[in-house]
Design brief:
Number of helices: 8
Number of strands: 11
CATH class of the largest domain: Alpha Beta
Structural class: alpha+beta
Order of helices and strands: HHEEEHEHEEHEHEEHEHE
CATH topology of the largest domain: Trna Endonuclease, Chain: A, domain 1
Radius of gyration: 22 Å
Number of domains: 2
Largest sheet: 6 strands, mixed
Amino acid sequence: MTTPLDQAHAVMDAAPEDDAARLRFYERMGDSELFLLLEAEPDGDQIAPHVFEVEGASYILAFDREERLSEFAEGSAPYVGLSGRALAQMIAGKNHGLGVNLGVAPSSILLPPSAVDWLHETLSHAPAETSDTPTEITPPKGLPDSLVTAIDTKLTTAAGLAQCAYLAGVTYASGQRSHILAFVGADPAAKDALARAANEALVFSGIEAGALDVAFFDASHPIVGALDSQALRFDLPQPIQPAERPAPGSDPEKPPKLI
């Protein structure tokens, strides 16, 4: 089965001079759930990654599918699942490289410690907060397709964190003009994560210089009407609520079966 990481790696491999393709690969890695090979089963919140020496450097190994980890280990092996950004945070600054899907997938790659440190630093960057007030909303103009695609891709990983998002041009009370990604109906606990996601979309889209403001509005806010008529809308996936199953025997027309 081809995975998003495989696809991003193939694009990067086909265009080694394309910085944007390389950035998109790192973005997919940060967003992916990775399975880290361990020496032994976790002890509470303590884990011991399996460390390999490759050309004089230490690497830990992770895979984007459990089946790939089992294939590498030639059977069952202890592991822990965590996001690529959490893994980068865990090993950054410890002089460990990261081997991803080694020998078991087309996205097999060795990332040196410097690349792991860079990924952690990039993913940890948070946008600055401001308190300027939007006074005019206009259609987005002059934004590269790579940024729109990056936002769309990023928001597919934010299921249930907001109702939708709008990309628009904005003029503030101060007279400053910019572009804004406005989230509507966001979960208050998810605002930091959504702001970071927007910032990552900007960084990993390959734009050398640019700004994208992030704002949050309730669905009843007056500005939502202007956003709906002027902006580019992104509908975030919503989690599917499982249908409630009646307890066995609760329906007299459908008694439980003996086995």
